[in-house]
C-alpha cells in the first residue's frame, strides 16, 4: 500500500475522535464564556488547565514514545508495555501521595487558598489521564483503531453531556466557584472512561519489572520528558505567568488580572484550530514514521509528507484568520472580544509549531533525543524571559508575540541541526511559497478591510476567494504528486 495513502488513512482514523472531540469541546467555549459573565472566572479555569498540560508531560514521562520506539526493536513486546506501564503507575502513585499531603500549600502558592479542592480534583484527573495513556497507546500499536476511537468518543460525550447538565441546569451564576468545581467533576468522570474501557490491561498486569529494559527506556525517554516539559512551558506558561505578573508587577487587582487571563485564553482557543489538525496528525504520524525507518525511500516519503503538511497548516491559518468575524461568535460574551487581535499571531505561531513537530522526527528516529531537549529548553528560557519582561508592559500581547518568536526559533534550530545529524532534503522553495503566499493573502485582505470586526457579505466573499486562490495554487503545484499518492 502507498505509504502516503496509509498515513492519510491512519490520520483520518485516529484523528477523527480527536478532531470531532476538539470541535465538540469547542462548544464548551461559548458555554463557559456565556455562563461565566466575568472573564475572571473563566481565567481561573484556564489557569488550572494550563497546569494540567505540565503535569501530563511529567507523569507520562515520555513512556508513550519510548513504548513505540522499543516495540519495534525488542522481541518481548509484552515486556516493553509492562515496563513502561509500571513506570507510569509508580510515578503517579508517588505524585498523588505528595498532592494529598501538600495540597493546601500548593493552593496558597497558586493564590487559591480558599479552594484547595481545585488542586485535589485536578491532581486526580491528571493521574487518571496519565495512567490511561499507555493502554491507549497499546491500542494504537495494535492497530485497534475502532476501539481507540470509540473510547475517545465515549469519554468526550460524557464530558460534554455532564458539562451541559451541570452548567445549564444546576449551576448558579452567582456562585462561580461551583461552576469551576462542576467542570472539574465532569472532567474526572469522563477521564475514568479510559481506564474502565481498558480494564483488561490493569487486571492482567503482572508485576514483573525488567530493570535493564526499564533503564534503557527511561534513558531514551528522559530527554523527551525535558523537551516535552520545556515545550509545555512554551505552550502554556504565558497563561500561568499572565495572572501572576499582572497582579504582582502590572498594577492590576487579582480579579482584573484573572479577567485578562480569561480574555486571552478564550481567544487562544480560536488559534488552537491549527493544533486540532496537528494532534490528529501526530496520533498517526509517530508510529508511522518509526515503521518507515527501515524503508530505503523513507527520506523521499518524509519530504512529500512535509510538503503536504505545510500546505495544510497554512490553509488552516488562512481559513481562520480571514473568517475571524465568524469564528469570534464561538465566544458568546463580547467582553472577551477585546483580545481577538492576537488570534492571527497565535495561528501563525501554531503553524511554526506544527512544522517543528513534523521535523522533530529526525532526533527520535536517530536516537539523539537530547537535541529535542536542547531546543525545547532554549525555547522555554526565551518564553519565560520575554513574558517576564513584557507582560507587565503589554499584557497578553506580549504573550502572543513571545509564542510566535519562540516557535519560529525552534523550527529554524531544528532544521539546522537535522541537516547536520539526520539530513532530509526538504523542499524549502515550496515551504517559502506556501507560507509566503498565505501571509501575502492575509496582509492584502487586512489592508483592504474597511470594516474591521464587522461581518459583511462582500468581505466574506473576498476573504474566501483569497482562500480558494491559495487552494488552487497548492493544487496546481502538487497535482501530479497528489494523483500519484492517492
What does this structure look like?
The protein has one domain. 82% of the residues lie in helices and 0% in strands. The chain is built from 21 helices and no strands. The protein has helices at residues 3-26, 28-35, 39-60, 63-71, 77-109, 116-141, 145-170, 176-191, 193-197, 199-203, 211-248, 254-271, 273-291, 298-321, 324-327, 343-359, 361-365, 370-394, 396-421, 428-448, 457-485.
> Mean pLDDT across all residues, rounded?
83
Quaternary form:
single chain
Percent strand equals under 5%
**Poorly predicted sequence stretches spanning 5 or more consecutive residues:** none
* Total DSSP E strands: 0
Shape designation: globular
Radius of gyration: 22 Å
List the helices and strands and how they pair.
Layout: H1 3-26, H2 28-35, H3 39-60, H4 63-71, H5 77-109, H6 116-141, H7 145-170, H8 176-191, H9 193-197, H10 199-203, H11 211-248, H12 254-271, H13 273-291, H14 298-321, H15 324-327, H16 343-359, H17 361-365, H18 370-394, H19 396-421, H20 428-448, H21 457-485
Helix pairs in contact: 1-7, 1-13, 2-7, 3-6, 3-8, 3-11, 3-12, 4-5, 4-6, 4-11, 5-6, 5-11, 6-8, 7-8, 11-12, 11-18, 11-19, 12-16, 13-14, 13-16, 14-16, 14-20, 14-21, 16-19, 18-19, 20-21
Can you summarize this structure?
The protein is mostly helical and 486 residues long.
Features:
486 residues; 82% helix; globular
Amino acid at each position: 500500500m502507498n505509504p502516503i495513502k496509509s498515513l492519510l488513512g491512519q490520520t483520518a482514523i485516529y484523528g477523527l475522535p480527536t478532531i470531532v472531540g476538539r470541535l465538540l469541546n469547542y462548544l464548551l467555549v461559548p458555554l463557559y464564556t456565556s455562563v461565566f459573565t466575568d472573564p475572571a472566572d473563566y481565567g481561573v479555569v484556564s489557569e488550572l488547565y494550563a497546569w494540567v498540560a505540565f503535569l501530563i508531560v511529567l507523569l507520562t514521562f515520555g513512556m508513550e514514545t519510548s513504548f513505540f520506539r522499543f516495540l519495534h526493536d525488542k522481541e518481548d513486546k509484552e515486556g516493553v508495555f509492562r515496563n513502561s506501564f509500571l513506570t507510569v503507575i509508580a510515578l503517579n502513585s508517588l505524585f498523588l501521595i505528595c498532592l494529598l499531603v501538600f495540597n493546601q500549600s500548593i493552593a496558597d502558592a497558586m493564590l487559591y487558598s480558599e479552594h484547595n479542592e481545585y488542586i485535589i480534583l485536578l491532581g486526580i484527573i491528571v493521574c487518571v489521564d496519565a495512567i490511561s495513556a499507555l493502554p491507549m497507546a497499546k491500542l494504537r500499536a495494535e492497530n485497534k483503531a475502532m476501539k481507540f476511537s470509540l473510547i475517545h468518543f465515549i469519554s468526550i460525550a460524557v464530558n460534554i453531556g455532564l458539562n451541559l447538565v451541570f452548567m445549564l441546569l444546576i449551576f448558579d451564576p452567582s456562585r462561580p466557584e461551583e461552576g469551576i468545581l462542576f467542570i472539574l467533576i465532569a472532567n474526572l468522570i469522563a477521564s475514568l472512561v479510559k481506564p474502565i474501557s481498558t480494564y483488561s490491561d490493569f487486571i492482567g498486569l503482572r508485576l514483573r519489572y525488567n530493570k535493564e529494559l526499564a533503564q534503557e527506556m527511561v534513558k531514551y525517554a528522559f530527554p523527551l520528558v525535558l523537551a516535552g516539559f520545556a515545550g509545555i512551558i512554551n505552550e502554556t506558561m504565558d497563561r500561568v505567568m499572565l495572572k501572576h505578573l499582572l497582579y504582582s508587577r502590572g498594577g492590576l487587582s487579582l480579579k482584573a488580572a484573572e479577567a485578562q487571563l480569561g480574555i486571552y485564553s478564550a481567544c487562544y482557543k480560536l488559534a488552537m484550530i491549527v493544533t486540532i489538525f496537528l494532534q490528529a496528525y501526530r496520533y498517526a504520524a509517530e508510529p508511522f514514521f518509526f515503521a518507515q525507518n527501515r524503508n530505503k525511500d523513507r527520506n523521499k516519503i518524509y519530504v512529500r509528507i512535509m510538503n503536504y503538511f505545510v500546505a495544510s497548516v497554512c490553509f488552516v491559518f488562512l481559513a481562520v484568520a480571514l473568517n475571524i468575524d465568524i469564528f469570534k461568535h464561538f465566544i458568546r460574551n463580547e467582553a472577551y472580544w477585546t483580545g481577538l487581535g492576537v488570534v492571527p499571531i497565535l495561528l501563525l505561531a501554531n503553524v511554526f509549531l506544527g512544522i517543528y513537530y513534523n521535523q522533530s522526527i529526525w532526533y527520535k528516529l536517530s536516537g539523539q533525543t537530547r537535541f529535542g531537549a536542547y531546543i525545547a529548553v532554549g525555547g522555554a528560557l526565551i518564553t519565560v524571559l520575554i513574558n517576564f519582561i513584557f507582560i507587565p508592559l503589554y499584557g497578553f500581547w506580549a504573550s502572543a508575540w513571545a509564542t510566535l518568536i519562540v516557535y519560529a526559533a525552534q523550527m529554524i534550530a531544528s532544521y539546522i541541526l537535522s541537516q547536520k545529524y539526520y539530513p532530509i532534503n526538504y523542499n524549502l522553495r515550496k515551504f517559502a511559497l506556501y507560507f509566503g503566499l498565505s501571509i501575502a493573502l492575509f496582509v492584502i485582505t487586512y489592508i483592504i478591510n474597511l470594516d474591521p470586526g464587522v461581518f459583511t457579505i462582500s468581505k466574506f466573499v473576498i476573504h474566501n476567494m483569497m482562500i480558494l486562490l491559495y487552494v488552487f495554487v497548492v493544487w496546481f503545484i502538487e497535482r501530479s504528486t497528489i494523483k500519484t499518492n492517492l
